[in-house]
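Ops channel
N.P.: pipeline sanity check, posting one input/output pair.
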């Protein structure tokens, strides 16, 4: 098996994009974005889409190729990525996967867990419940039906809560019982590179990124999307908080501080997810990229 996927992971704002570009240029290959929000064309600033210069440096895939009005799942991403890799490996036996959505990277590397089919009427009822009684009632229900997953899931993400609940109700079993983490055989080997830093460094980089986003026009971008705030794609850090500001629930300074706080929490969840994987080559965020290339070249000889 000669095909290699280099997967670059780590917390948000740590420098995954620049690392991916350096590796893609060295190996003369292309980058696949594994980000659940950068795929939406209407969400550029708040999702930290790579700059035009970065996108032009090497070919990128799955950046702003969908609309927030399209239904797009991690299963769709897995299928699209595997199909794309078949094409890329015809020209080059190395491809780069980069992104901050752990579920998306894991779907490509390990495969998705096998969930049961659920009656669409269940989701319909849950959506009605969300509209009439709010997210809190769904959270309480999930805590009762699957306390284990309740402790892990992003409780501010209605889509994740709804998905878990519909499986619990439809199958009569906890959602977490289907999270087997079994690996699906792939036609490539994966080298996973994790970029890390001290917590203080990560948090400072997050704060700087949010400030930069505001200067770049995040407020205006969010305002243009406010009327669609109920869409799943927009249940996202950076937009939810500004929607609350537009709704008069808080002032702008508080909304910005909430973006920073919730982004820090997201980074913590990312690290918690990846720290459980033993096969990640963890490197410091400010390591010389030539050193990274040398490490990967060495690893390729034994893969």
């Amino acid at each position: 098996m000669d095909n290699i996927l280099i997967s670059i992971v780590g917390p948000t704002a740590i420098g995954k994009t620049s690392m991916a570009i350096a590796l893609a240029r060295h190996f003369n290959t292309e980058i696949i974005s594994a980000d659940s929000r950068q795929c939406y064309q209407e969400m550029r600033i708040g999702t930290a889409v790579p700059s035009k210069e970065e996108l032009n440096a090497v070919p990128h895939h799955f950046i702003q190729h969908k609309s927030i009005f399209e239904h797009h799942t991690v299963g769709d991403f897995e299928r699209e990525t595997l199909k794309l890799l078949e094409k890329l490996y015809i020209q080059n036996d190395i491809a780069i996967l980069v992104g901050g959505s752990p579920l998306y990277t894991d779907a490509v590397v390990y495969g998705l867990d096998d969930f049961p089919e659920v009656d669409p009427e269940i989701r319909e009822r849950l959506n009605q419940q969300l509209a009439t009684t709010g997210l809190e009632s769904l959270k309480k229900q999930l805590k009762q039906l699957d306390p284990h997953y309740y402790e892990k899931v992003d409780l501010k993400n209605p889509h994740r809560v709804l998905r878990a609940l519909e499986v619990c109700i439809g199958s009569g079993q906890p959602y977490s019982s289907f999270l087997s983490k079994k690996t699906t055989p792939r036609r490539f080997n994966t080298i996973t590179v994790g970029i890390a830093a001290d917590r203080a460094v990560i948090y400072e980089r997050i704060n700087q990124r949010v400030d930069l986003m505001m200067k770049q026009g995040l407020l205006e971008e969010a305002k243009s999307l406010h009327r669609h705030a109920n869409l799943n794609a927009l249940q996202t850090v950076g937009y939810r908080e500004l929607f609350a500001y537009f709704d008069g629930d808080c002032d702008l300074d508080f909304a910005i501080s909430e973006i920073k706080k919730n982004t820090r929490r997201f980074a913590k969840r990312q690290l918690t997810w990846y720290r459980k994987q033993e096969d990640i080559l963890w490197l410091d965020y400010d390591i010389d990229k030539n050193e990274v290339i040398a490490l990967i070249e060495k690893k390729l000889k034994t893969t």
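N.P.: looks fine end to end. The radius of gyration is 20 Å.
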